[in-house]
Every structure is written in structure tokens, then in C-alpha cells.
Design goal:
Blueprint: H1 3-16, H2 40-51, E1 54-62, E2 65-74, E3 80-81, E4 92-100, H3 110-125
Antiparallel strand pairs: 1-2, 1-4, 2-3
Helix pairs in contact: 1-3, 2-3
Length: about 130
């Protein structure tokens, strides 16, 4: 994938985000002012579908306590791609980052992942 094609992928992903692709329990708090909020898992899976590489999961800490997890991708030559990094408030810190195995079956957020994936594929194929 060339840099311009990657820009197309990034734009397709960003355009595909919505309240309906975010984590259901956080959906009432989703806003277009911070469209990347709670989109990391589905986004990392779609990037993994299209580019391969590793899935990375870190912890989100506030005041030293884990409050959530954050997902992103590591591609060839160690290049890390995190299309949702801007979602965090100043007090939220992403700590660590371990390679995790892709789930054999996506159970949690399956509908949201499939919706985002279909939007991205439609945008890239048009």
C-alpha cells in the first residue's frame, strides 16, 4: 500500500466512524467533536484486515489506575499506526503495549466492526 493509498484508508476509516460503530455502553457519550472516542478496537481490526501486521493492546490509566484498554496496529518494520490516539483526554495515559493474538471469532463489538468494515470497503472500492 502506498502512502497515498494509506491516506485513502485513513480517510475512509475516519469517515466511517459514528455513534453506531463505538462501544455500545459509551454510545450515549459519543460526539462528532471527538469521533475517534471508543473506536480503537474496531479500527485496529479493520486496519489488520487490510494491512496485516500485529494488533497491539495497551492500558489506559487515569491517576495510575487502569480504566480501559487501547488497541492499535504495528505494521512491517515496526511502524506503529494508531488512528484513534487523539481520543484521549489529558488525564488519560496509554501505558505499555503488548502484541495480542487476533480473536478467532469477534464476539464483542462484532456488529460495530462489521459496520465499520463495510463502510471502509465501500469507500475504498468506489
Amino acid at each position: 500500500m502506498t502512502l497515498s493509498n494509506f491516506s485513502d484508508l485513513e480517510q475512509a476509516i475516519r469517515d466511517g466512524w459514528g455513534a453506531d460503530t463505538t462501544t455500545p455502553e459509551h454510545r450515549p457519550d459519543w460526539t462528532p467533536d471527538n469521533p475517534a472516542r471508543d473506536q480503537c478496537g474496531v479500527t485496529a481490526l479493520v486496519v489488520h484486515d487490510l494491512l496485516g501486521g500485529d494488533l497491539i493492546r495497551g492500558e489506559v490509566h487515569v491517576d495510575g489506575e487502569r480504566v480501559d484498554y487501547h488497541w492499535w496496529n504495528r505494521l512491517g518494520m515496526g511502524i506503529e499506526v494508531d488512528l484513534t490516539r487523539e481520543q484521549f483526554a489529558p488525564e488519560e495515559m496509554v501505558v505499555g503495549g503488548d502484541v495480542i493474538e487476533r480473536p478467532a471469532e469477534i464476539v464483542r463489538l462484532r456488529e460495530e466492526y462489521e459496520l465499520l468494515r463495510s463502510r471502509v470497503m465501500a469507500a475504498l472500492c468506489s
